[in-house]
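Suppose a colleague, Dr. K., hands you the sequence of a protein chain of 589 amino acids and asks what its three-dimensional shape might be. Before reaching for any lab equipment, you can write down a predicted structure in token form. Begin with the sequence itself:
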Amino acid sequence: MTQRLPLIIFALVMAVIPLLPGIPPFWIVLLDNIGLAALVAMGLVLLTGVGGLTSFGQAAFCGFGAYTTAVLTTAYGVSPWLTLPASLLVSGIAAVLLGLVTVRLSGHYLPLGTIAWGIGLFYLFSKLEFLGRNDGISGIPPLSIGAFKMLSPDTIYYAIWVAVLLSALLTMNLLDSRTGRAIRALRRGHVAAEAFGVQTPRAKLLVFIYAAVLAGLSGWLYAHFQRAANPTPFGAQAGIEYLFIAVVGGAGYVWGGVLGAAIVVILKEVLQSYLPYIFGGQSQLETIVFGIMLVLLLQLAPQGVWPWLMSKLPFKPTRKTPDTSVKLEHRERAPGTSPVLLHIEKARKQFGGVLAVNDVSFDVNAREIVALIGPNGAGKSTTFNLITGVLAATGGKILVQGKEVENAPPQEVVKLGVSRTFQHVKLVPDMTVLENVAIGAHLRGNSGAIASMLRLDRADEAKLLAEAARQIERVGLSDQIDQLAGSLSLGQQRIVEIARALCVDPMLLLLDEPAAGLRHMEKQRLAALLRQLRDGGMSVLLVEHDMGFVMDLADRIVVLDFGTKIAEGTPAAIKRNPDVIKAYLGAAA
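The predicted structure, expressed as tokens, is then:
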């Protein structure tokens, strides 16, 4: 209830504004335009600011929503309210068709792709006869409830802002969920998200469709607000402006979309109204001044105005502590030390003319800690990537619990009970430690996007967060649970990655240089934790350069050099092996 209090207060304020005596009608028109822009910007917050997918074409989805209701109401006499699901459906179908192609693009090709189809759809709207070509469609009937018709800006005002508030609530619910964490993880790249079971193409398409549906809703309201629809508001310039609104407000924040819409719409109106008087109406300088002012604003608040304002508040929002009494079911552990969890037979990986992994073979048994060591460039991390499906093997076999994982994607490998950390930390820096760790439990939850938006996922979500809190406590970072992951030291971030990997409840834990950046006592605590995991039935395969740490911890050691296995055995045997001494440990060993 406390978290929803600002939303309730904002709703009450917006409800009272039209009732204030003497309020100019122009202000109501301005607020209507702010609400319409905020709906589109809210979708871009999720798409660009959270999902990391830059789109310049959202205005085209507004056109789908507007033209759908325009055609159905004027040509077929359908009630405006009945055209709402049709407008949203048409926008969603268009998003599916465009998204299947667009979300596969990366880098600068993605925004260029959205610009291309945005321009294409704008010209399509202006050339189709049944859409009225450049003149568009006029005479669109107003929204009505019984005999009450929303003909004026102050009457449709409540319909617009109810849509904004409901959309904001649904969007916040979505972000505060298992699905929302998966979407937020995409911004830092797909490798880490996929390692914990996130289907990245599906997550990207989901957020693309959601943003398009919000834009379609804005277009539907716009058509009944203006009572006309023509191509002009749905072109590339409008698409660029919508993205600009999201960036100015704060591209990663729902309320940043609303604030950005208010700033841009009001600033444009003020400049258009007063600059002609200042400069004698000689030229249209408002666009130049508008651009300069927004650049200065972004210099002041490079992450957006909303997070800048929030940083100035004397209090910080608090998150409810997860109830650790609720628990997820655990995997059944192997009973003894003989069963083979991981079997690698002549694994090979070749990059062009470089042989990174050369016919490497070894096993990891149940309840065992195996270390994979070797000089830099020996192929250790590449071997990890072959095991976890990040890279496809050129040859050989890799079996997990007797099941071959040849060319299986990471999402399938993790289902077999294999989880990992990374040589270079892959956390989402602007998510809390709790949220980052909870990504590891993604496959242990069941609730989807619709359930999350309607808040039907609370029991499932409580279990996931409770599991994340338990693993954070297990690795000794309970006092950092609500801190942003980006604010932690490198050593602490590596420990957070271990907690995230443990949330999978794995049979086999792969750790890539887990002790790097840790102090002596922290290494001792990590070693104790790994022994505890082994005694509890988990196996560990780790890559590490700290030989003292490895020799005291590992049951067996596998040594690689230039992608080839040169030795395997107990720590004592490895210390005496002449090939290892020559290639890695040095004569002094």
